[in-house]
Structure formats: C-alpha cells, structure tokens
Amino acid sequence: MSRDNETIITPWEVKGKLEYEKIIQQFGTSPLTEGLIKRFKKLAGGNLHVMLRRKLFFTHRDFDLVINHYEKGGEVVLYTGRGPSGPIHLGHYVPWIFTKYLQDVFKAKLYFQITDDEKFLYHREYRLKDVQKFTNDNILDIIAAGFDPHKTKIIIDIRDINVLYKIAVKVAKHVTFSTVKAVFGFQHSTNIGLIFFPAVQAAPCFLEEEITGENVLTLIPCAIDQDPYFRVARDIAAKLGYNKPSTLYSKFFPGLLAGGKMSSSEPESAIYMTDTSETIKRKIWNAFTGGQPTVEEQRLKGGNPDICPIFHYLYFLFEEDDHKIRQQEMDCRSGNLLCGEHKLYLIKKLVNFMEKHRKRREKARDLVDKFLL
Length: 373
Ligand code: TYM
Prior knowledge:
The chain has helices at residues 20-27, 34-43, 50-53, 63-71, 90-106, 116-122, 128-144, 157-173, 177-184, 192-202, 207-212, 227-237, 277-285, 295-301, 309-318, 322-334, 339-364, 368-371, and strands at residues 2-4, 7-9, 14-15, 30-31, 57-61, 76-82, 109-114, 152-156, 217-223, 246-250. By secondary structure, the protein is an alpha/beta fold. The chain starts with a strand and ends with a helix. The structure holds ligand 1. Ligand 1 binds at residues 11, 79-83, 91-92, 94-95, 113, 115, 118, 201, 220, 222-223, 225-226, 250, 252-253, 261-262.
C-alpha cells in the first residue's frame, strides 16, 4: 500500500496524482533502465514492444535476473491474472497484450489466475453466481488476447483451488496478520477471507517449481497496483525453498476523463472490450483532452499532450510509428492539430482494433476448454 498525502495505490483503490518517479521510490522497485531494455531487445531478436520503447512498462523487480537466466538457457514461466468484478476494459487488457508478446519472446508457459474468490470476498454485494458470470465473460477476452493454447493455463481459484491450496497454506504459515495489515491496510473489520487471500494470489508464483521441481523463474507482468501481493510473495519465497518471482510493472492506462486511470468504478472513463463502435466513437468524442476551449485559442496557444488521454492512447498503444507520433506531438503543441482531428484519427484506429478483438472473442467460445486446467 502506498499512501502519500492524496496518492493511494492498493490492489483495490488507485487515487490521486500519479507521479511515477515518486511511486518507484515509495514502492522500492527498480526503474527499467535503457541498459536493461537494450539487453532485452537483443533477446527479443530486435523486436521491442511499443509499451517498452515508450515506457508504459516502467519499473520492475529482478527483471535482470530473468534475462540472465534465459540467456543461460534457463526456463521462464509467466504469471498474470484478473479479478472478475465486471466487464474487461482496455486498461485491464493492456498487460495482456504485453504478456502475449512476452510469451512469444520467452516461448513461455503462462499461468493466468482468475481471482473470483478475491472479488467475491471484497465486494459485499456480490454473490458467488455474480463473480462466476463475470468469470465466464472475462475468459473470452483473455483468450482473445491471443495466448498460445498449448502453453497457457487459466486457473479459476474457486474451481481449481486444489492446485493452489498446498502452496497457499505454506505461504500463509509464514505471513503474519501484522504484515498484511501494513501492506494492504486491512482492519479488524476486514473479513478473514481477504486476510488469507494474499496467500492464494502468491501461490501461482511458485506453481511451476512445485510441479516440476525445476529451477524455473516466474515473471509477472501487470500494473503497479498488484505489487503488494508480490512483495509479500517475494519476502517468503526463500523460506519455502522457491525462487523469488520477478515482476514487470506498467503505469496505469489513463481514463477518458481528466486525470486518473481507466477504472470500472467510473464507467465513462473506460472503453470496454464489448463496447460497440458507436459507443466507442461517442466516448472518445466526449473525452477530456489537453486542448484549448476554442479552435482559435488552440491555433494560437497549442495543446498539451502531456495531460491528454487521446495522445496517451496513441503514444502507448495505437501509434507504433515513432516518426508519426513525434509529428503529432509537435502539431498538437504548435496548434496545427485540432483535438477533433486527433480524436477522429484515434477513433479509426480504436474501432479497427476492437472489431478484430470482437471477432477473436466470438471464436474464443469454442476454445475455453483448451485453456482451462
Ligand atoms: P484486476 O482484475 O484488478 O486487473 C487485471 C489486470 O489489469 C491491470 N490494470 C491496469 N493496467 C493498466 N491500466 C489500468 N488502468 C489498469 N487497471 C487494472 C492490473 O494490474 C492487472 O494486471 N488481483 C488481481 C488478479 C490477479 C493478478 C495476478 C493480476 C491474480 N493474480 C497476477 C496480475 C498478476 C486483480 O484483481 O486484477
């Protein structure tokens, strides 16, 4: 948990100003340096993902050890996840696009955990059948991200707990209430399910070692909000005879409203993977920008891409061409580019991206069994 005046980052709540340099210091993670990115680029055969080039993924724990291990011929396993509390939005999907890329680079097995238990325990109003409904829905988006069906296993906690429980109890034995209270901000009024749950999210960090007994390293790509879980897992790994999991963290994909991340708690801030093209157009059209209130002022003073979600969506994901994005940034700042024009440009790319996703999502219905444990 990080609480710095008004900035709050926990797995369940992200609030306030997001200053990523500060966040690195508060969390005690390592910045993703140019040197490390260069080493990884070599390993990836020169194909560096736009999210690394432009530092959407910006910080890590022991990613260098993963690179060392792989260079020496060692095996790397990936682990990421989803808490099924509603439909998937683009912010959730971002780490999965990146995870799919990592799966290709490392030719890696992937464990994908669905924490239906966590969401049932956290949301007072949810019944088990609600989270199960979200699970069935979210699985389609997960599969549509394009993971290798031969190398990917989706673990649904409540359904598959037998696979995790042995590891989870071992973890739980070494983690005290005062630790999780400090890390997650638990209170005496917190239900005991949530207090145990960090052991369940830690379990897949060690699953491959537990099953194979081999010296594999597990790498976890996700946004920085999940770090508290993995800090706890790393702290106890050696005591249980496992390798520490490594992590690679992204910034938050911004929402469509002023400031803040894309978040389900503010539906108008989010583009859902099931939104129709019309809804996407409307949401982008109504989005906050870094532009001036009138065309005349925009031409005169220029806009501010640093605070503009339209620019950020293109920068981090939809405009891979370095020359084009630089040109757009200059044209925005100089007032050559109007927000309306930029929005139309993004809408075209986004609608195209979502149409492809929707088709893969439909096909995913037939693939579910291949991905389940
Ligand atoms: P959940 O469902 O809250 O989030 C799913 C994934 O999306 C990331 N995320 C974002 N990334 C970029 N921009 C955003 N605006 C944004 N919002 C959410 C999260 O970091 C996460 O990677 N407890 C977890 C489920 C889980 C998990 C894991 C996640 C279990 N094991 C291992 C990552 C890695 C959860 O509720 O995620």
